[in-house]
Amino acid sequence: MNADELSNKARALIRPGSELTERHLEFLKRMIAIDSRSFGVGEFDGDRTTLPDMKEILELAETYLSNIGFSKITINHSPDGEKLLNPILMAELHTGNERPTLLFYAHLDKQPYMDNEQFLQWGGTPPTQARWNDDRTRLYGRGAADDLAGVTAIGMTAEALLLALGHDQENPSPEVLENMPCNIKVIYETEEESGSHTLIEQIQQNEDFFKNVDCVLITDVINPATGFPGLTTSLRGIIQMRVELMNESEFQGMDTQTALYKLTSTLIDDHHALAVRTIADADIPVTVEDARSYELVPTTVTALRNGSGVLPGVLPTVPHNKSEMIQAQLRRSFANARPGNRVSGSIIFGCAGARLSFDRTLKIPKNKIKLALEKFFIEHNQFQLEFKITTACDNYENWVAYDIILKASSKDP
Question: What are phi and psi of 87, to 5 degrees?
């Protein structure tokens, strides 16, 4: 059987309503039902206050891959045998030493629910309960898309290939494996949403598993539109730093958060591009052909804005066309500053606040201070962000404070 014939037979098995597809969707629902948040617990009254140990989701993933035909499955432990809080799962389907090896990646952990105990953002349905839309084209639940769909896409693809070759799970045949075009390895991570802090260390602990890999396929990237998978051919790196600023003087004119905003703003130049030239100059230039190809991506300016929750009146920092917006997301280095430890790629976290304090001994009426602030933001608000100024504190004799909220997007992280 040549590659085209194998591909056609496997793809015929993966279709809506097929026995194979329905079976994998059932595993997807079971994975959605498991709380595998890797950060952000204690979100509401009655919510758990400690992070899950990932045991339940890992055991289900192990069963899932074993049922497909993966015989070598390992859940990582530390070198001294101690249990890890966020271990990786490694699985292998070895078909021959002379064949190329593909490594598939996905993650089992999930983001917080970002809701209260009534789950209003989820329509009153708990986010651990999978539910279909009316025409059964979309399945909803925490982690369904990010990244349990990737988990099951890997499993479904591997099993479809095996079945197309005549694999029988009850009576596996070495001859079937010999007809596979490649070896398949899988890594499922359990702390991607919280920063992958131990991923490199765990990979280094298992060098034998990861050596001789010819290609890595990551099933956790952006799709341009529903029904149009995104094919990302390369990924750039992320430099993440934690900065703490402490006020050790008696000066009350600027709080530490505002000072930190001013400090991090120096990472951006006057044209709103990355001011760290060593990094920005290393970006591969976009060719004319590249720019034209981005115009063919099946999305629209409206869809790109809505996907990030950008408010209607807010202007982009690049020309308002699809190609330029995609280039800004995928081809240009940028800085992303946010309170806390999470960095989240090109997703817009569109709300920032600062508190400004003013010395009242200067005898300036407080209403004039507020009017001056409003005038300043109107004149300098080149991207038309939504802003709000409120009195934060007016109880002290010598100073008054104002909270300033700037908002570009309504999107939750």
Answer: -75, 155
- What is the percent of the chain where pLDDT is above 70? 93
Give CA–CA dist 332/294, Å, rounded: 14
What are the CA-CA distances from residue 175 to residues 91, 171, 185 (Å)?
Answer: 20, 12, 19
**Mind listing the pLDDT tens digit for each residue in 355-397?**
787 877 667 777 788 899 999 999 999 889 999 999 887 766 6
- Quote the CA–CA distance of 212 and 259 in Å, as a whole number: 49
CB 177 within 8 A of CB 99: no
At residue 32, the pLDDT reads 97
CA 259 to chain centre: 29
- Please report the sign of the dihedral spanned by the C-alpha atoms of residue 273, residue 230, residue 91, residue 32: positive
Q: What is the pLDDT of residues 301-314, one digit of tens each?
A: 998 888 778 899 99
- Copy the structure tokens of residue 410: 């309504």
Tokens matching residue 119: 């789950």
SS3 388: strand
